[in-house]
Design a protein that fits this description.
alpha/beta, TIM Barrel, two-stranded antiparallel ribbon, globular
C-alpha cells in the first residue's frame, strides 16, 4: 500500500501515544511497514540522484561504493565484505572521551569487562596463551579487528597478541580516537605487525593533535585512515582543515552512515530519520552528506579512497559473513537494535513539509482510523 504522508502521520501520532509494550494489530503493523517503505523509497531516490553526480563512482562486488585508487581501498573492509571473515577482538571496556554518536553513549561507565588477562574472540574468552591453540585448530580469517572501546587506554597489552596474528598472516586493523597516540606506542604497534589503524576524527572534532598523530602513524603503520560516522559537524570541521588532513598521507576515509540505537538516539531528537530494511535506524542527512563528500573528493581528485560505508554496505556485510559461517540461504545478523519501534522518533520526518513521498494512494477500506478492528 502506498500510504499517504498525511495518513502515516495520523497513525504514527497514535502509535507514539500507546503504552510501552502494547502490541499492534496485524493491520496496524501493515501501516507501520508501509510508512517505513514510503520513507525509505524517498530516501533511496534522493541518494541515487546524488550518486549519479559523483564522477568515477566505483562499486566493490556489488556490495559498497567508493571513489579513489583501488589499491587504497581499506584491506579490513575488503576482508569484511569479500574475504573469509572479519573477527572482532574485544579487550578494552573503557574510553577517555564520550562521542554523542557512540553506540555506548550514557553507558560508558557500565560496560562489562572482558576479564583480567582475557580476550574475547568470536564470543569466546581466551587467555593470550590460548591463541596459539586457536590458530592451530580453526581456519584463519582473512582479517581481524580490534574493537570495544579505546585500545590505547592499555595499548601495551595488545602488542604480543598482534604479533601472534601477524605471524599467522592475518590482516589486522584497529580503531582509535587518536588522543592517546604517541610516537612510542605507534612505533610499537607497527613493529608488532598491525596492518591498519583507523582514526575516529569526528569524535575529537578534527583536533590538530589527532591530525598530527595520523601523520605520525603513517610513519610506522602501512595503512592509515579515518573512520567516522558522517554528521553535519564532522562535514563542516573536515573542510575547515581539509588541507592539513589530506597532507598527512592517509590512505582512506570510511564515511559511516550514522547508526542510532537506544543509547544515542536521544542526542538526535527532532532529526529526520528512516529505517533501512527494518534494521538500522539513521538520520537521513548522514548518507546524503557522505555522497556530497565523495563528489567533492572525486572532483578534486584527492589521493585517498573515500568509502560510502552505508546501511546498504552493512546489510551486504552481514549476508556475506553469515555465508562464510555456513549459514542457511538468506541468513544474516542484520537487525534493528530497538526492542520496540520508537514511533515518536519518526514524527519529525512525517511532519516535515519539505519531505515528500514519491507516490501516494488512499488507504484501503478497513485501514482508516475508526475502521480498523483487527
Amino acid at each position: 500500500m502506498k500510504i499517504s504522508k498525511k495518513d502515516a502521520l495520523i497513525w504514527f501520532r497514535f502509535f507514539a501515544q500507546l503504552p510501552e509494550g502494547e502490541e499492534l494489530m496485524v493491520r496496524q503493523q501493515e501501516i507501520v511497514y508501509a510508512t517505513f517503505a514510503q520513507i525509505e523509497a524517498a530516501i533511496d531516490a534522493r541518494n541515487e540522484q546524488l550518486q549519479k553526480e559523483i564522477p568515477n563512482l566505483k562499486c566493490l562486488a556489488g556490495r559498497t561504493y567508493y571513489v579513489g585508487d583501488d589499491d587504497k581501498f581499506p584491506r579490513g573492509c575488503r576482508s569484511c565484505l569479500t574475504g573469509t571473515g572479519l573477527s572482532a577482538i574485544r579487550k578494552t571496556n573503557t574510553c577517555n572521551i564520550a562521542c554523542k554518536f557512540c553506540y555506548y553513549y550514557g553507558d560508558l561507565d557500565c560496560i562489562p569487562p572482558i576479564g583480567e588477562g582475557m580476550w574475547e574472540i568470536g564470543g569466546t574468552k581466551f587467555y593470550e596463551k590460548d591463541i596459539d591453540l586457536l590458530l592451530k585448530i580453526q581456519k584463519h580469517p582473512t582479517g581481524i579487528s580490534y574493537v570495544y572501546l579505546e585500545p590505547f587506554m592499555e595499548i601495551e597489552k595488545y602488542y604480543p597478541v598482534i604479533r601472534k596474528f601477524h605471524e599467522a598472516g592475518i590482516h589486522q586493523h584497529m580503531y582509535t580516537n587518536g588522543t592517546l597516540c604517541t610516537e612510542e606506542n605507534l612505533k610499537a604497534l607497527g613493529e608488532a605487525g598491525l596492518d591498519e589503524l583507523r582514526f575516529n576524527l569526528g569524535g575529537v572534532n578534527c583536533a590538530d593533535k589527532v591530525i598530527e598523530n595520523m601523520r605520525l602513524a603513517k610513519k610506522y603503520i602501512k595503512y592509515v585512515g579515518i573512520e567516522t560516522p558522517m554528521t553535519p559537524e564532522y562535514f563542516e570541521q573536515f573542510f575547515q582543515k581539509k588541507e592539513a588532513i589530506l597532507s598527512t598521507g592517509i590512505d582512506f576515509m570510511n564515511c559511516a552512515e550514522l547508526h542510532l540505537n537506544p543509547n544515542n538516539i536521544g542526542n538526535y531528537e527532532g532529526e529526520n530519520i528512516y529505517i533501512a530494511r527494518h534494521g538500522y535506524v539513521s538520520p537521513i542527512w548522514s548518507r546524503e552528506l557522505t555522497l556530497k563528500f565523495m563528489k567533492i573528493a572525486a572532483e578534486e581528485q584527492w589521493d585517498v579512497v573515500v568509502h560510502d560505508c552505508s546501511n546498504f554496505t552493512k546489510f551486504a556485510r552481514s549476508i556475506h559473513q553469515r555465508s562464510q559461517e555456513d549459514g542457511w540461504f538468506g541468513a544474516s545478523t542484520y537487525t534493528c537494535e530497538f526492542p520496540v519501534v520508537p514511533y515518536g522518533a519518526f514524527l519529525p520526518i512525517l511532519e516535515d513539509e519539505n519531505f515528500a513521498f514519491l507516490e501516494e494512494e488512499e488507504l484501503p477500506k478497513g485501514y482508516k482510523p475508526g475502521e480498523l478492528f483487527f
